Amino acid sequence: MRLHRQSCGRCRNLSWALVVAGSIAATAHAAFGAAAPRAGAATRPSEREARLSARRDARLSEEAGNLFRTADTTFLVGDLARAAEVFQQVLTSYPNSIYTVRAHARLGDCAYEMRKYTDAAAHYRRAAAAGEAAANDEETAAAIRADFMVGQCYLKAKSYTQAFTQFRKFIDRHPGHALVNQAYQAIGDAHMALEQYQQALKAYRMVGTVIGEKTAAHRRIAPGQRLYLRITDADVNVGDTPRSVKATVRTTGGDVEVVELEPLGLRNPVFLASIPTSLGSPRHSGELTKIFNEEIASKIRQQLSEAEGLERAARDKSEEAFELDRSAQKSVNPAATERKRAALTAEADQLRARSQELRRECTRIIDSAFAEYEKILSRWAPEQSLAALTALRPETRPTTAPAEPAEQTAADVFREVAGRPVAGADDDEAAPAATAGEQEARGMTEQEILQMRLSAARTPTNMENIDGRLTTLSVWSRSLARQFQRLEVRGGDRIEIEYFDEIGPAGPNSPQKGIRKDIVEVAADASTAILTADGREPLEHIVVNSDVILQVEDADADTTDAPDTLTAVLAAVPIVRSETEAAQQTKSKPGAAPATQRATPGEVAAETPEAERVEPLVPPGAASVKVTLVETGPHTGVFRRAVKVTPDGVVIDRAPVLPIKTEGGKSNLCALRLAYADSKAIRHRDGWVVARMVDCIGDSGGDVAAVKYRQTLLDQQAKLKRAVAAGEIGRIYLDLGLTRRGREYLSSAQADCTEVARDDKTGLAEEALHHSWKIYFYAGLLDDAVAACRLLMSRYPNSEYIDDAMFAMGQASLERGEKQAEQQRVAGEKVTLNRDLSRAIAQFEELVKRFPNSPLAPEALFMIGRAKIAAGQTGLDVFERLAKQYPDSVLAARGLVKVADYYMSIGDFRRAAEYFGRVLIDYPDSPDLGEVLLQRGICQYKMGLNKEALETFYRVIEEQSGTELAGKAQKYIGFINQKRGDRND
Questions:
Q1: Is 488 helix (H, G, I), strand (E, B) or coil?
Q2: Common-topology check for domains 214-283+486-523 and 780-980
Q3: 586-640: per-residue pLDDT in tens?
Q4: How far is CA 853 from the centre of its chain?
């Protein structure tokens, strides 16, 4: 009790203490609450506290920067795991620093380099999201690059659908960024991986065409370049079926073209298209569609269908009249019956006459269209006229066989086409497809079209050939439209692009405010050159007492249909002064010696812009003379003037007009400077002076060097990718029988490969040579393909494509040897191991010897066996060697099947069955397992092993149910049962 009371007393004292404390606290709270505003003012940081806070923030930012730079150095030296740890430490220790976006992006780079593409995409997404509140320009740039790298991760992971989506979003979010060009190239790479070559070609053509804000230079185009069109309209492509839009492109010179723009994808508001341009007088491709188009073709088909209906009705009327003439009514009422019969006959005649009239109208339209197209071809492309084409025997397939002197071989045509602008190979659309209700032969070749053109010129269209003529005309009209849809421009022209917005600001179909326009000027960067007397090589030095050519290329100086003139200035500059100026120019150019650094994924090297300054036409103190240059022909844009350089000076029109000797300087001779003011420069501001300076040296000999123009690595990469895509498209066209179209694509691809292969500095020459011989193979030019393979092997003896090249050489020899052996067999001669087959065997053997671990080595052995079979030998030793040396290859099973087939052909069924059994045991996953089982059963049947044969045939039926092999097995089961006298169940 005492304890309880004591405890209760303590509890009461504690409770009282708590009550007192609570009252004191409440009083204090009330007192401080009344003074709350004064206390808030007291918590505001003082000036000293603000300085301390700023100093602390600067120290933390410096620490974050030091840590980030340490991590970045670790990444650049290749320690990716350690770098990722340090970047993560930056984010953890300094989450609000100015390095947050870059740290996230670098984490993505580490994961990307380690091929963890899913993790990399997640880090890049975080960097792109954090970049919306970026603290500085470096963070913003890192966020944009991270947004691009998300698509790159999907591309590397082969998730092409997600890659397409991400790159399209990137293009829409950053339309003017330099990485947009790489995004288009990545889209092309994805289409190439999916073997969608036409779409890849479209994407590659967009590389380098994307620009940011338009400047005056961007609103100009050089003749010969493609004019790219882009329309953004969110009101058009809103349904499930993608729609296209049309824009009208017209020049002040008079050319008018209608271009159809295709959407980038489903419900995408961006529409793209392009049209080639060229120097020339206006030539409206719309004239072609006025002569014949799909509406006219549909009208003709409708008339032909109506004519067939009339002919059927006429036959019915005639049959009715015939039956009426033989009916019983004629004897009962002969007069009325005769009148009715005569009326039916007259009606049938009228129906036939109307049908013939419709058919004659159709044939007239077709013949008229053929004639008009021939007239246009004779004006626009005389080399494609009937007179020019029939002078040579047309070819249907490429061939390497020697031709008569009066003919062109396929190689000649191929090289000729490769050397000139290709009509149609640069088009965006694929081969024309047949429209609904049109009976069109998909594989119609240029040879077939030519034959129909000849037939149309010789004999008019009649009732028997009208369908074929109509089909040919449809194909030909679309081919001509693709070939001749080109914008012909002249210097001084302006191009106006007009698009009608169906749902404009003033409502639907408002002609006042529904038209969108853009203006592009025709201009071209000028170039000056001092050439050799033949005009082929640019000079590095001018030797006294030599003839030279002064040249200026400027397409916008071409203004009329006749050769034009322009004025340039030729100055004599002391050589010492020219060298001093060159040294000063080198020093003044920004980025003359750019520092190199380790590239990171997806980064674009910054290009050094040229110094934007206007040079004087004549350097101070230099003697000069104005020179008039004449255009080399109508619409060439190349202006030349021949002069002679003598010790007395530059001679023009037999009189020295400009001395080249000086009192001082190197050998008392000047440097000649050809200068021209480009009034409408594209890449530089107006008034830019382009000049070419060449030293004059004494008459002791000289040298000539070709100028090599610089192209960026990205341009060369896109050019090579375009060549690969064009080569695959050309191969497909050749397979379809579209010979000329395929050859044009292949020639364009070969020209690009050749250009890339010339430049070793880009590192792409080796790959270009690899694709070069493949394109020759597609074109059927085996000799050229072998030459390209040898060039690759000689220039790059350690190339990863050596085994590919060796296999290609052997394949070319094998094809030629097999062709020769087949000709011997058809002629009844004895087939031998000819020279090409021997060469193929040697080339394949060399491949197996040098590269025994190459994936092509098993196929090379198989090709050796194939060559021996073509030569009338068995090839058994080779196939046995293939199975022993490469037992895991699929070709080993095929080789054993070849051996078994040979033993079956000579009646040795026991050995054949053994080899078929080896295939069944050693290669149970062979794709030819069903055929092997069937052949083994046949061997057993031939040897009289009916029980074993039945088991094999029943296995075939069980494993190959519903196939032709099962039907053959059932047939042999019937034979066996019939011999045994049993009923075939």
A1: strand
A2: no
A3: 433 333 333 333 444 554 433 434 444 557 888 888 889 999 999 998 888 899 9
A4: 33
